[in-house]
Automatic annotation (TrEMBL):
GO cellular component labels: cytoplasm
Gene3D superfamilies: Zinc/RING finger domain, C3HC4 (zinc finger)
Name of the protein in question: Putative E3 ubiquitin-protein ligase UBR7
InterPro entries for the chain: UBR7, UBR7-like_UBR-box, Znf_FYVE_PHD, Znf_RING/FYVE/PHD, Znf_UBR
Zn-finger segments (UBR-type): 41-112
One Gene Ontology molecular-function label: ubiquitin protein ligase activity
Entry keyword Zinc: yes
Residues covered by the UBR-type domain: 41-112
Pfam family, one: zf-UBR
Keywords, in A-Z order: Metal-binding, Zinc, Zinc-finger
Length: 417
């Protein structure tokens, strides 16, 4: 049992300067991860279809619900004060700001642009909708705490509870069920990872001691168990046998009479012998293992297992997913580059700016800070005395009041006119 605490609510909510600086540092690291790899002063249009960048959708400038995306710099320079939807990052996208999707508006950073960026791809995120539930985020009508996870292929975001599978703790990337269904060849790779964990809320597949047990409920809500002994895959390469990572996919069956042959992997890759089929990793992997359906959670470095033979390269080209072979395409790689671009924290920048002031300006800045601190303390004391919650509007009202008083106090004295 937890020990009882005698500390007061006030003591529990007190923060030290170290706590504030630590929280500020964490927020800055998160911001640098997403924004650090993108240019905040120059429109990215001239860079073409950028492999990955932070993007936004401006609903203020949207016409007829037409999807469009703008880069970080244009979000600041051309759409300041607008209703903007943050899209996190997208791949192979060229900034739309000021093109034909924005009639009557010209990009201030890069006025001359083509009418359309024909290679751009748009999904429901550009309309502020996410997941297979097509709801906004944050959703004011849904207060259920949940994690949003991005599919690395369609790049849509999904609620964890809507993926139909328990979220593993050690996954690296996720591919949604729709994308797995479209790119069926990926199931062959998925089935050849050792210790694969397949799960679903109602329909589960468990792997224990080399035996897979499929559980599914019949129409009469009776459970039937189908045990299939896992066969050793003699063709599996030593490299693949060394993988010891867990993945998870959901398994669903609408029929009460599930036949084993219905679950056999039917994803066959026809490799042209003239293109070096004998060296095709995917061809060697093909076995009569059970194929699953639904969301797939992949372990780290899973992309390095993908075959690079000419036949498989044709498959990637056909499905427009060559990016899977690029190690720099991952969100993690982009975020690391962004963190590497960070120079100094806002706190350090403040100290640096203060040190460059002369003595008089330093004292004025310190007095202004001390005055603001005292006023804020008195302002918040009224909320504490009345047991009221401080809202965002309350804080805005406080600083607006300071700004008004500052303007009144900065008037030129009568005798100096």
């Amino acid at each position: 049992m937890a020990e009882s605490s005698n500390s007061s609510p006030k003591e529990d909510t007190e923060l030290t300067m170290c706590d504030v600086l630590q929280e500020e540092q964490e927020l800055e690291e998160d911001a640098n991860a997403v924004l650090g790899g993108s240019d905040d002063t120059n429109c990215s249009y001239d860079k073409g279809y950028v492999s990955r960048q932070a993007l936004y959708a401006c609903t203020t400038c949207s016409v007829n619900d037409q999807p469009s995306g703008i880069c970080l710099a244009c979000c600041y320079a051309c759409h300041d004060g607008h209703e903007v939807v943050e899209l996190y990052t997208k791949r192979n996208f060229r900034c739309d700001c000021g093109n034909s999707k924005f009639p009557g508006k010209t990009c201030t950073l890069r006025p001359e642009k083509d009418p359309l960026n024909l290679k751009n791809k748009y999904n429901q995120n550009f309309r502020g909708l996410y997941c297979n539930c097509s709801r906004p985020y944050p959703d004011l009508e849904d207060d259920t705490p949940d994690e949003m996870i991005q599919c690395v292929m369609c790049e849509d975001w999904y609620h964890g509870r809507h993926l139909g599978c328990e979220i593993p703790d050690d996954y690296f990337e996720m591919i949604c069920g729709k994308c797995m269904e479209t790119h069926k060849f990926l199931y062959t790779y998925l089935n050849n990872f050792q210790n694969i964990k397949v799960c679903d809320d109602e329909n589960t597949i468990k792997q224990e001691n080399g035996v897979q047990e499929e559980k599914f409920k019949t129409a009469e809500n009776k459970e039937a168990v189908l045990s299939i002994k896992e066969e050793n895959d003699s063709q599996l390469s030593t490299k693949n046998q060394g993988i010891n990572n867990a993945s998870a996919v959901s398994f669903q069956s609408d029929s009460s009479n599930v036949k084993q042959e219905d679950n056999i992997c039917n994803v066959k890759v026809e490799c042209d012998t003239e293109k070096g089929a004998e060296n095709c990793i995917l061809k060697k992997m093909e076995t009569d293992k059970i194929i699953t359906s639904g969301t797939a959670f992949w372990p780290e470095n899973w992309r390095t297992e993908l075959c690079h033979c000419s036949s498989c390269m044709d498959i990637y080209l056909k499905y427009d997913c060559e990016y899977l072979l690029n190690p720099d395409d991952t969100i993690q790689a982009y975020e690391e580059r962004g963190k590497g671009c960070a120079t100094e924290s806002q706190y350090d920048k403040g100290l640096s700016a203060l040190s460059q002031m002369d003595r008089v300006k330093q004292m004025e800045a310190i007095r202004a800070y001390t005055s603001m601190k005292g006023q804020l303390k008195e302002y918040l004391k009224a909320f504490a005395d009345n047991k009221r919650t401080v809202s965002e509007n309350d804080i805005k009202e406080f600083f607006e009041g300071i700004s008004k008083r500052k303007k009144l106090n900065n008037g030129v004295p009568y005798f100096c006119r």
